[in-house]
Amino acid sequence: MTDRNQTKESPEKKAAGLYAASLVKDGDAVGLGTGSTVAYTIKELGRRVREENLNIVGVVTSYQSEMIAIEAGVPLTSLAETPKLDIAIDGADQFDSNLFAIKGGGAAHTREKIVSMSADRFVVVSDPGKKSEILTVAVPIEVMPFGRELVTKSLKDLGGEPVLRAAAKKDGPVITDNGNFVIDCTFGEIKTPQELAAKISQIPGVVEHGIFMNVDEVVIGKTDGTIEIIKL
Ligand SMILES: O=C[C@H](O)[C@H](O)[C@H](O)COP(=O)(O)O
After folding, report:
1. Which residues line ligand 1 (CB under 6 A)?
2. Band of pLDDT at residue 38, cut at 50, 70 and 90
3. What is the C-alpha separation between 10 and 220, in angstroms, rounded?
4. Considering only the top CATH level, what class is 139-208?
């Protein structure tokens, strides 16, 4: 289970996060993902802004990344103001050798997909445990509360095992930053992620699923502070 709030230092996540921050150039508009790995990137970008006078603007994908970015001193803008981004950096829950990824462990995948698709380059930061021959983790699906029953039934019809995500410190379901529910749906081994993604997208009430097919490269951090880069 990932330490979502970065209560413990992770050398692997830190190595990946810091390397990704070094890819950001002066003048860049940067998509800032959500989660414990990219949090290292956001903090490092703040340091570069303060200490190296790096001139960048960030677009956040969640209240979490907004709070981290504000505290770190990363200047922020919106997609309305800056619709085209130079680079987006984000974590993932699992990725395969084709760089298909599953995201949304923090329920932020809808905004993450919009932001990453708005960027010329999408870099995923990861630790070694996220790499898998084949995608197997549950697919997070953001759902309009009004459509929950239909979406649940339709996911079962697709062979999935849907579970409404419960909040950790509140009674009832997780509510996303967009005011919706999240259903985590297990499909066993996902052999054709594109096909599954297309089928899920067709279900009325689905806001967005966590299958990402737009990753350009993955940076994997190691415990000794080195990194491995995987590109197609
Ligand atoms: O909704 C959250 C995101 O997709 C995260 O980027 C993903 O869950 C990975 O998070 P972490 O870096 O904490 O493992």
Report:
1. 2, 4, 33-37, 90-93, 103-109, 112
2. very high
3. 12
4. alpha beta
